């Protein structure tokens, strides 16, 4: 693998780290007598494709639709409109989303759950093909969820590295071209140095394995909204987390041009006594990114994290009022789907109206990516917060 931790030194002139070859050329300096060493780097087999895929997803006016909820979480969404959690109901809802005409104008990528990647419409058309026809890149959630982290302050770590290489290769064959791995950091729980290091190392190993199998990794250490901390505290923790993440990404030889980030916006805790304005959130979030994220990274695709549909869009818009070194966009789940679900209600006759609701939210965030969004015509429903304490996917 391009990311393998095993280092092999050739007896001649090549040093191998995974599948990357660092060929040494030695020159003797006439003045100092010191030996200069130059390295030529052979990229991994998928590097050019990874870079192109990342650029395609990070294209102007477009972002990511995240519909990678586990079956259990999808069941909670369906239950909110009175539907049972059955495969046919999950298929019907995902079909509504993925067959929306014109969706590709505003959406460049869609993150799918494993079940969805292999599903088809009721007419037998693969969901992957539906996406590709709209020039939307199919993606896949590859982590196996959060479990308690022993030795920590009641914190979690993300599992799923075992067997990830073989699973990623199969996902690639099925048509996926990018991947998502979500881990979390809790400010009320510390965070402990152990939890931060575990999150960063896990993300780095996943990213390297994904790239080795042709998938652009979305790197997502979500800093949870839970807590009553200030925005300054969130900034402090975010800088700490992203510093560790990029350190370990580099240690694992991850190609920065072939990744995407999915950070939390820098906001006060959900229970903090004062709310921050979009301008304040933009200022703190961009400060964090400029201090920690190399400009080689093509795209920053923010998660909504329980903000209302309108809040998530307003904050994104504020960040795009001035030029940024990266494509600053969205990778929203609830902030794109909430109105859709409530419009659909599980009734076939409401599908067209629900798809229009999806297009409306997608267009609003497309305008926000371009810095041109206005909230004047937003509904009261779009203004309602969606924060759930201890929320799990």
UniProtKB/TrEMBL annotation:
Taxonomic superkingdom: Eukaryota
Pathway: Carbohydrate degradation; glycolysis; D-glyceraldehyde 3-phosphate and glycerone phosphate from D-glucose: step 4/4
Annotated Gene3D superfamilies: Aldolase class I (3.20.20.70)
Keywords noted in UniProt: Chloroplast, Glycolysis, Lyase, Plastid, Schiff base
Subcellular location: Plastid, Chloroplast
GO molecular function terms noted in the UniProt entry: fructose-bisphosphate aldolase activity
Keyword Lyase: yes
Matches recorded under InterPro entries: Aldolase_I_AS, Aldolase_TIM, FBA_I
Chief place where the protein resides: plastid
SUPFAM superfamilies noted in UniProt: Aldolase (SSF51569)
Assigned protein family: Belongs to the class I fructose-bisphosphate aldolase family.
PANTHER family, per database record: FRUCTOSE-BISPHOSPHATE ALDOLASE
NCBIfam families: FrucBisAld_I
Protein's name in the database: Fructose-bisphosphate aldolase
Species assigned in the record: Protea cynaroides
């Amino acid at each position: 693998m391009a990311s393998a931790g095993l280092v092999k030194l050739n007896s001649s002139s090549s040093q191998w780290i995974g599948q990357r070859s660092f060929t040494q050329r030695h020159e003797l300096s006439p003045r100092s007598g010191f030996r200069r060493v130059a390295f030529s780097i052979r990229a991994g087999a998928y590097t050019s494709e990874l870079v192109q895929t990342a650029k395609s997803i990070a294209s102007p006016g477009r972002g990511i639709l995240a519909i990678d909820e586990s079956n259990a979480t999808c069941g909670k969404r369906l239950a909110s409109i009175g539907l049972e959690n059955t495969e046919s109901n999950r298929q019907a809802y995902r079909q509504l989303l993925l067959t929306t005409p014109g969706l590709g104008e505003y959406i460049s990528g869609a993150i799918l759950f494993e079940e969805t990647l292999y599903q088809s419409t009721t007419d037998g058309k693969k969901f992957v093909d539906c996406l590709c026809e709209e020039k939307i890149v199919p993606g896949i959630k590859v982590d196996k969820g959060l479990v308690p982290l022993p030795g920590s302050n009641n914190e979690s770590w993300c599992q799923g590295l075992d067997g990830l290489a073989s699973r990623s290769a199969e996902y690639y064959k099925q048509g996926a071209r990018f991947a998502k791995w979500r881990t979390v950091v809790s400010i009320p729980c510390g965070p402990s140095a152990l939890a931060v290091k575990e999150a960063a190392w896990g993300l780095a190993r996943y990213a390297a394995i994904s790239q080795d199998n042709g998938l652009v990794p979305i790197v997502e250490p979500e800093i949870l909204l839970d807590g009553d901390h200030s925005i300054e505290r969130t900034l402090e923790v975010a800088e700490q987390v992203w510093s560790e993440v990029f350190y370990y990404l580099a240690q694992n030889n991850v190609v920065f041009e072939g990744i995407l980030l999915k950070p939390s916006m820098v906001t006060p805790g959900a229970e903090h006594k004062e709310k921050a304005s979009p301008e304040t959130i933009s200022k703190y979030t961009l400060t964090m990114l400029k201090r920690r994220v190399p400009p080689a990274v093509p795209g920053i695709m923010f998660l909504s994290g329980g903000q209302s549909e309108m809040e998530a869009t307003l904050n994104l818009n504020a960040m795009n009022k001035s030029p940024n070194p990266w494509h600053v966009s969205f990778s929203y789940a609830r902030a794109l789907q909430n109105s859709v679900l409530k419009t659909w209600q599980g009734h076939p006759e409401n599908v067209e109206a629900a798809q229009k609701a999806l297009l409306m939210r997608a267009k609003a965030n497309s305008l926000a990516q371009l810095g041109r969004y206005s909230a004047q015509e937003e509904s009261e429903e779009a203004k309602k917060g969606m924060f759930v304490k201890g929320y799990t996917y």
